[in-house]
Write the structure tokens for this entry.
Amino acid sequence: MSTVAQRIGAGRFVSFELWPPRSSASAQALEEALHELVSLGPAFVAITYGAGGSTRERTHDLVVRLVNSPHLPLAHLTCAAHHRRELVELMQRYRAAGVDNLLALHGDPPLSAVERLPEGDLRYAVKLVRLARELEFPCVGVALHPEGHPAASTPESDWRHQAIKLREADFGLTQFFHYSEDYFALVEEMRSRGAQAPIVPGVMPITNVRQLERMAAMSGTSIPLGLAERLHAVADRPEEIRRIGVEHATALCRRLLDYGAPGLHFYTMNRASATLEICANLGWEAAAVL
């Protein structure tokens, strides 16, 4: 089985993020998405890990299940609210099951001002990268923020921290964003700081305005004013929201590919249709993706 980094280096590709199901209805949606997305020959499929380990076993079971499927799994793992021994145990279980690829994360805090995500023994994601190396993971990636991490004290400290992470990783995977300029500025900044690992842009097709706003608040992503106005003007018409979202994402993806992005990573929300439509708009056939 090849690694995520090897597949990124092989040329233009698509990849997807999915989350483990929380109910029978979401389990059905997941199965449908997996079935439909396989037609695009994804380079890898990232599986999310809930803050503080809230989806620990569901994430583990789904990742391990995908080891012997057409999908190459990328296991998310967060260090916030975890003891080191818990992380070691989780990673050893993954290695024993044949999981080679890990995305090392700190973990997003809750949106509520009242709630706080406890710190773990490893305060930063880069320490989780180093622990994964000790446990001989063949491929380790990190998350990057084109618009800056929402908890960063200054832009300079944010760039410095992101570069430290990327220099120790095999690849970077960005949070979703809406301006291609933000992605290319991130790439240029990382290269200027000696971080040479490939950076994969993350794109989220907009199909639900409330969900978009919630995720943007978590990640610190800004929503373009013109786009927000168009979406709110049709807030009571879901099909129009989806049409605008697909149109916007298609244009963003074209700019990214035209100016040198290695591929595209889609935040699917466990729904395949918008991503499939965007790829069709880009003229991609399954054989051309890998």
Notes: The two ends are 15 Å apart (CA to CA).
